[in-house]
Automatic annotation (TrEMBL):
Pfam families: MerR_1 (PF13411), TipAS (PF07739). This is MerR family transcriptional regulator. InterPro entries: DNA-bd_dom_put_sf, MerR-type_HTH_dom, MerR_fam, TipA-like_antibiotic-bd, TipAS_dom. Keywords: Activator, DNA-binding, Transcription, Transcription regulation. SUPFAM superfamilies: Antibiotic binding domain of TipA-like multidrug resistance regulators, Putative DNA-binding domain. Residues 2-71 form the HTH merR-type domain.
Length: 252
């Protein structure tokens, strides 16, 4: 039995507008359209929609999902196994963060003590959950170089890099109430620029660096992730990175 757009939307819990958008961009085209213009979805269409929504739950951008599903080598069973593994990892991280929240509530009430390390249990910036987005924006080459560069490090080296990353972000967060063009802010942004170029295995031009800063604000997922270090940090970094790029263009 084939379903109309409204029936699919109600069953799945998404909007009719979303299904229309998927159709318009060629991501999910209904297998049949009646003479009166009604879109009809088959069981195969619904299976594809399930795949799309699994990928969306894992923050894959629509263009990337379309590329994956159109690949002749795409294996639905293999993809489901991957979805399951990634969602279990996501659940584990969320459970840890919920536990940290519960402990923090007790801490604020004076019921328990918390070390600084315990206050950030569950936060993990060592891996980028939006790798698919990064691949789409900058291409596979830059991301593959980064992954290869990190993979070549020992466990101790990777942990040292993660600590340096964390320290830089905390430093910038402490400066976010000041001016983005201030000497201290620009010095911290210089550290961030040098860090990216040193440990990514890829050299980012000043213009790309500026665009990365803009992305911190344009993409709410990045904003949410960065602002965990302090509300407004993403906007501050955007502004400070733009100042840094403009000031240093002549010497690039």
């Amino acid at each position: 039995m084939k379903l109309k757009v409204k029936e699919v939307a109600d069953m799945v819990g998404i909007s009719v507008r979303t299904l229309h958008h998927y159709d318009e961009i060629g991501l999910l085209i209904p297998s049949e359209t009646t003479e009166s213009g009604y879109r009809l979805y088959s069981d195969d269409d619904l299976e594809k929609l399930q795949q799309i929504l699994f990928f969306r739950e894992l923050d894959f951008p629509l263009k990337r999902i379309k590329t994956i599903l159109e690949n002749p080598s795409f294996d639905r069973h293999e993809a489901l196994q991957m979805h399951r593994k990634m969602l279990l990892e996501k659940r584990k991280r969320l459970d840890q963060m919920i536990e940290t929240i519960d402990k923090t509530i007790q801490f604020t009430k004076g019921e328990i003590e918390m070390t600084n390390e315990e206050k950030f249990a569950g936060f993990d910036f060592s891996q980028n959950p939006y790798e698919a987005e990064a691949r789409e924006r900058w291409g596979d080459e830059a991301i593959d170089k980064t992954k290869a560069h990190m993979a070549a490090m020992s466990e101790d080296e990777r942990k040292a890099v993660e600590r340096q990353f964390d320290a830089i972000y905390r430093k910038i967060a402490c400066l976010r109430d000041g001016a983005p063009d201030a000497k201290e802010a620009q010095a911290a942004i210089q550290e961030w620029y040098d860090f990216l170029n040193q440990y990514s295995g890829h050299h980012f031009s000043l213009e790309t660096f500026k665009c990365i800063g803009q992305m911190y604000v344009d993409d709410e997922r990045f904003t949410k992730n960065i602002d965990q270090y302090g509300e407004g940090l993403a906007e501050f970094m955007r502004d400070a990175m733009a100042v840094f790029a403009e000031r240093n263009k002549k010497s690039e």
